[in-house]
Structures are given as C-alpha cells and as structure tokens.
Amino acid sequence: MPEASGVAESGQRACRSVLAALGVHRHPLGWRRSPSTATIGRVLAALDGDALDRAVSACLPGQHRAAESATTGPSHGSSP
If we measure between CA atoms, which residue out of 71, 73, 1 comes closest to residue 36? Predict the structure, then answer.
C-alpha cells in the first residue's frame, strides 16, 4: 500500500514536537517513534471512507472562516 508507506516515512522524518502534537508517543523501549507501515495500512483499511469524507467536509468550512478572519481581522459595520 503506497499511501501507508508514504505516511510512515513522513512519520519517521517528523520531529518530536510534530509527533507529540499528533498524539504519537515514543515506545517505552525506544523501538519506534511513529506507527509502522503495516499499522497505518490497517487503520486506513478499517476507515469508513464516507464517514471520513463527511467529517472532513463538515470541518473545512469552519477552518476556512477562521483563516479568513485571521488574515483580514474583524470586520466593522457588517452584519453577521
């Protein structure tokens, strides 16, 4: 599964702060610092693609509005 191997490779290259922000913790014995290709492949295979699509689609409009307001600042004189 090429997608899983790409994600795993990115995880291996990621710095500790990025992994921590994603909730990835170092193995107690130091064996791995990010999920393996096989683990990522199993997670991707178990996902409900339609549910993921709905969740991402529901989240994106809010992200877009937040990014716009951060770059333009609060608008004065316009109605909500």
Answer: 1
pLDDT tens-digit readout, 5-52? 888 888 888 888 888 888 877 777 776 677 788 888 898 889 999 998
Contact 39, 12 (CB under 8 A): no
- Host H or E run for residue 61: helix 49-72
Instruction: Give one DSSP letter per residue of 40-56, joined into a string.
Output: HHHHHHHS-HHHHHHHH
Closest by CA position to 14, among listed 35, 30, 28: 35
pLDDT of 75 above 60? no
- Calculate the dihedral angle through the C-alpha atoms of 26, 27, 32, 34, rounding to the nearest 10 degrees: -50
Residue 40 pLDDT: 86
Cβ-based neighbours of 73, under 8 Å, separated by 6 or more: none
